[in-house]
């Protein structure tokens, strides 16, 4: 950006000589106008506010020093002044210093001297502009954050909008950009986005807001969208394409609802946040625009219990091909049932935590899993659904291999599987002999090993599991006592009541009334 310089001298040839002598553009300036007397110059300065005034001292009507004095006293504008004069009187120079004149140059003008002075003035202006811009950006970003995240009264919201310098604009959209699979400095993301929207225009600014690792939000104004034919969707596609090209990785863009008034920006922000929940439902190669999604809503549900149980069994049995099938089915279910992003995270983390718990129960050290750390932090680093699935499968296969080694090293491996079987089949008619046959073990040896491993007899453990489940149902349901007994594996309600009282010190009815 070139700064504006105004030439004032009553000698036309001096003015033309200055215009032709100096490399104005190379020094960061362009001559915006010229005048041959101080009175006209003062009027121009007050009206057009040039950045720099180069003036002679001796001029008709109003001399150079009076011009400077009046400009300073009126306080309507504050340009820099350079005096070029044929008079070397110290008194002139002294008065010039008093009025804050940047430099006092004697005629005849030396090209190198004045160009050096101009570069210093331009450098001073550039630093001041950058400082002011930084201050304005800090104020704007603070106001922007308050507008989005705090419940403000209407007058305070209007104050925030004024600090954004966008109150005259009509039409806004909040966009969240997510860089998948690789870690990227958000400063680089900002630079790419700003260049895409504004080109090389240094005075243009975009309001950004950080959304955590590899996610950044920005406010897009209608006049920024208009040059990209096709509206907000096409605009988002262009931004996505530029980011993908520069960063060489997958990018997901979420677009909030377009609002007309800046005071309603929060609505667009909140709908962009909601659009994030469609990440694993919609095709990631296109921007996800809230309200235009194929699935108009997402579901906050959990993975089917039978599917979850089957996966855990296959992991413990190290059935690699079955684990692969289970993971494929699991991720297909995420999309078919339109799992919200948070629901996907919950389902995956549930499996990860259960696997870790199983390893710990077999005295295994989960820290030896090379894939554990990435799975514990997988949602902190945005990834595509395919990348998450591959990461998850690698973790499960490594964990299954470790469990298999622990089973071979530990004679209690089968006993742990038996305990797991009891935990999920306690409703059935389970006996020591039946279980021993199912797991191809000697009943007596199995009973001894179970007692050694868990500190109680097999029969005692079954009773404990059934009574705990009965207590849960008595707390959470209105089932009759005989129904509770039947649901937890007791064919005889009286026997159930006897065992319940023996274990807890009260009858089922007393237990329920105590709650």
UniProtKB/TrEMBL annotation:
Main location: cytoplasm
Transmembrane segments: none
Keyword presence, Transit peptide: no
Domain spans labelled Response regulatory: 4-122
Record Pfam families: GGDEF_2, HTH_18, Response_reg
CDD domains from the UniProt entry: REC_YesN-like (cd17536)
Keyword Thylakoid appears in the UniProt entry: no
Domain HTH araC/xylS-type intervals: 416-514
Keyword field: Cytoplasm, DNA-binding, Phosphoprotein, Transcription, Transcription regulation, Two-component regulatory system
Signal peptide: none
Positions where 4-aspartylphosphate occurs in the chain: 56
InterPro entries for this protein: CdaR_GGDEF, CheY-like_superfamily, Homeodomain-like_sf, HptR, HTH_AraC, HTH_AraC-typ_CS, Sig_transdc_resp-reg_receiver, Tscrpt_reg_AraC-type_HTH
Gene3D superfamilies associated with the record: 3.40.50.2300, Homeodomain-like
Locations listed in the record: Cytoplasm
PANTHER family the UniProt entry points to: HISTIDINE KINASE-RELATED, TRANSCRIPTIONAL REGULATORY PROTEIN HPTR
Entry protein name: Response regulator transcription factor
Biological classification of the source: Bacteria, Bacillati, Bacillota, Bacilli, Bacillales
């Amino acid at each position: 950006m070139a700064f504006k310089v105004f030439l004032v001298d009553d000698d036309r040839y001096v003015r033309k000589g200055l215009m032709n002598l100096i490399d104005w553009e190379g020094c960061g300036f362009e001559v915006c106008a010229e005048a041959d007397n101080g009175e006209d110059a003062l009027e121009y300065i007050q009206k057009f506010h040039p950045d720099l005034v180069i003036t002679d001292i001796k001029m008709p009507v109003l001399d150079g020093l009076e011009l400077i004095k009046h400009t300073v006293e009126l306080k309507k504008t504050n340009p820099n002044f350079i005096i070029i004069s044929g008079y070397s009187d110290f008194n002139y120079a002294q008065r010039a210093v008093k009025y804050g004149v940047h430099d006092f140059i004697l005629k005849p003008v030396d090209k190198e001297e004045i160009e050096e002075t101009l570069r210093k003035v331009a450098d001073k202006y550039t630093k001041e502009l950058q400082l002011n811009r930084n201050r304005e950006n800090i104020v704007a970003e603070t106001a922007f954050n308050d507008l989005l995240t705090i419940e403000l009264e209407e007058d305070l919201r209007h104050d925030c909008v004024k600090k954004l310098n966008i109150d005259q604009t009509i039409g806004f959209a909040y966009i969240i950009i997510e860089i998948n699979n690789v870690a990227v400095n958000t400063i680089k993301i900002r630079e790419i986005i700003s260049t895409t929207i504004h080109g090389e225009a240094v005075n243009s600014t975009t309001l950004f807001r950080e959304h955590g690792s590899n996610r950044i939000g920005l406010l897009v104004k209608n006049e920024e969208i208009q040059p990209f034919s096709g509206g907000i969707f096409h605009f988002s596609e262009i931004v996505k394409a530029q980011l993908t090209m520069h960063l060489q990785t997958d990018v997901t863009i979420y677009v909030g609802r377009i609002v007309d008034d800046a005071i309603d920006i929060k609505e667009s922000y909140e709908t962009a946040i909601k659009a994030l929940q469609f990440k694993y439902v919609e095709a990631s190669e296109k921007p996800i625009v809230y309200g235009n999604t194929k699935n108009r809503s997402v579901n906050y549900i959990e993975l089917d219990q039978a599917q979850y149980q089957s996966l855990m069994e296959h992991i413990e049995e190290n059935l690699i091909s079955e684990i692969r099938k289970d993971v494929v089915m699991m991720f297909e279910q995420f999309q078919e049932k339109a799992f919200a992003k948070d629901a996907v995270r919950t389902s995956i983390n549930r499996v990860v935590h259960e696997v870790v718990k199983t390893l710990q129960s077999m005295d295994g050290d989960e820290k030896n899993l090379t894939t554990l750390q990435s799975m514990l932090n997988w949602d902190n680093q945005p990834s595509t659904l395919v990348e998450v699935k591959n990461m998850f499968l690698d973790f499960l296969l490594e964990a299954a291999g470790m469990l298999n080694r622990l089973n071979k090293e530990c004679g209690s491996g089968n006993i742990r599987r038996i305990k797991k079987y009891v935990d999920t089949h306690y409703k059935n008619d389970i006996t020591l002999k039946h279980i021993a046959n199912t797991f191809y073990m000697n009943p007596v040896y199995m009973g001894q090993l179970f007692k050694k491993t868990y500190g109680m007899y097999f029969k005692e453990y079954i009773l404990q599991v059934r009574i705990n489940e009965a207590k849960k149902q008595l707390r959470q349901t209105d089932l009759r006592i005989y129904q509770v007994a039947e649901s937890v594996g007791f064919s005889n309600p009286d026997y159930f009541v006897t065992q319940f009282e023996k274990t807890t010190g009260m009858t089922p009815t007393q237990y329920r009334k105590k709650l």
